[in-house]
Design brief:
The chain is an alpha+beta fold. The protein has 3 domains: 128 residues, no CATH class; 148 residues, Jelly Rolls (Sandwich); 102 residues, Galactose-binding domain-like (Jelly Rolls, Sandwich), CATH 2.60.120. 17% of the residues lie in helices and 43% in strands. Strands 5, 6, 9, 10, 11, 12, 13, 14 and 15 form a 9-stranded antiparallel β-sheet that branches. InterPro entries: DUF3999. This is DUF3999 family protein.
Length: 451
């Protein structure tokens, strides 16, 4: 008896087909993932099309990544990356703090509207004593690594010991260095310079204070040297704003001074940008977003737009992040046409570990299926420990959307017909007929006995 190779191949493929069917039957759509670059993990950046494919009530829980066998692989929201560090360097002049500031209310140290230091002194505390403390305004909160005196600004020799403190409000100070040496000796025999104070591991601060603990120097107003501050800073808000992606909203309707717009999906919107349609125009406009109830609208921003004298007539506003699919622009005065509206959003990033073999696919959209919990945070933490805290997995680009189970996977499953009640009625009827038949039989038997 000869074995048919085709039947053997079919038998071998059945487990693969069953595995694929088990994983994919509950999902509506599939996106191919480009993982040609070899890596230990990959990022997936969501697009409006992914949002449009998901079940709105699932909160993106109806997404999984499967391998070539259709088996789910570890997949979760990308852990938050450490804040981006920006190099910082600036030169500022030391601000001499009058000696009376330490023990008198005749000297006031305040901040102006922009945060700059303002030192005011009345005649009660005025003295000719040399200052022993100096303030530095870095201009923003920074992690200072070092403070260095600029040689060209120094007018005299000195041998000093100083302490350094940091603050963000000019009231509460944190000690950063309790004994730092500063030296400048220029004469015929020696030229010695130690002009920098090294700091490290300190909390970010905007204001710094140098206190003289030993030595004498005349760094009064007009004689104070300039210092160079070096370090780094983080600005999560600005970094996030720079990463926003902008999407044009489509005009969907107009009624009087109200212009309705819609997005291709419900997206997490963080900013809006508007522009007037015609030159030599001006208007105050209000941006509203639709609530869960189609009839409810909430204002999120009001903008004054002027398109004249070289101005483009556009403006941008940041709003509290909210899920938005429909927006409305209301103008206090008539416009010549619909304004242009763009929304800024930051696409969520997910990460998966390439368990098994490629190709990998992102499956999206299900009425009932939900993704399991994977300890991806720990895995990414270990990878960053190996590659550096700034390491990011490469992006696996999304391919075109294709049907998996199709839109039917987003629909509630049909409830099978409940045969319990009909069967119960049948049993009751049959039982009643049986009782009636038994009663009839007994009556007939009784008549026969009488005869």
């Amino acid at each position: 008896m000869r074995l048919d190779v085709r039947w053997i191949a079919l038998a071998l493929m059945l487990p693969v087909a069953a595995a694929r069917a088990d994983s994919n039957v509950d999902y509506a759509y599939a996106f191919a993932l480009d993982t040609h670059a070899t890596a230990e993990a990959y990022r997936v950046v969501l697009t409006p099309e992914v949002y449009a494919s998901a079940n709105p009530s699932a909160d993106l829980g109806d997404m999984i990544v499967v391998n070539a066998l259709g088996k789910p692989v570890p997949f979760a929201l990308m852990p938050v990356a450490p804040p981006l560090k920006h190099d910082f360097e600036t030169e500022v002049r030391l601000l001499a703090l009058p000696v009376a500031a330490a023990n008198s209310d005749s000297v006031k140290v305040e901040r102006n509207a922009s945060g700059g230091i303002v030192i005011s002194q009345d005649g009660r505390g005025a003295t000719a004593q040399r200052p022993k403390s100096w303030l530095i305004d870095a201009g923003r909160e920074v992690n200072i690594d070092g403070i260095a005196l600029v040689p060209a600004s120094i007018q005299q020799d000195f041998q000093l010991h100083v302490s350094v403190e940091g603050s963000n409000n000019l009231r509460d100070w944190q000690l950063l260095s309790d004994d730092a040496s500063l030296t400048r000796v220029h004469n015929d025999q020696d030229q010695v310079e130690q002009l920098s104070v090294e700091l490290g591991g300190n909390a970010p601060a905007r204001y710094y204070r140098l206190r003289l603990t030993d030595g004498e120097v005349d760094w009064s107003t007009g004689h104070a040297p300039t210092v160079t501050l070096t370090g780094s800073y983080t600005d999560a808000g600005a970094d996030r704003a720079s990463q926003l992606q902008w999407l044009d909203a489509r005009v969907s309707g107009q009624a009087a001074s109200d212009y309705d717009f819609e997005l291709p999906a419900t997206l997490p919107v963080e900013a809006v940008a508007l522009a007037l349609p015609a030159t030599n125009s001006a208007a105050r406009v209000h941006v509203l977003v639709q609530g869960r109830d189609a009839a409810s609208w909430t204002e999120v921003s009001a903008l004054d737009l002027v398109r004249a004298a070289g101005r483009k007539g556009d403006a941008t506003a940041t709003i509290n992040m909210r899920s938005v699919s429909h927006l409305r622009v209301h103008s206090d005065t008539p416009l010549s046409g619909a304004p242009s509206l763009r929304v800024g959003w930051l696409p969520p990033q997910y990460v998966f570990l390439p368990e098994g073999s490629a190709p990998y696919r992102l499956l999206v959209g299900s009425y009932s299926a939900r993704r399991g919990e994977y300890p991806v945070d720990e895995a990414i933490g270990r990878l960053r420990g190996s590659h550096g805290e700034d390491w990011q997995p490469p992006v696996a680009a999304l391919g075109a959307r294709k049907d998996e189970a199709g839109a039917v996977a987003l629909e509630a499953p049909k409830v099978p017909y409940d045969w319990t009640r009909p069967l119960l009625w049948v049993v009751l009827v049959v039982g009643a007929l049986g009782v009636a038949w038994m009663a009839f039989s007994l009556l007939r038997q009784g008549r026969r006995d009488e005869q």
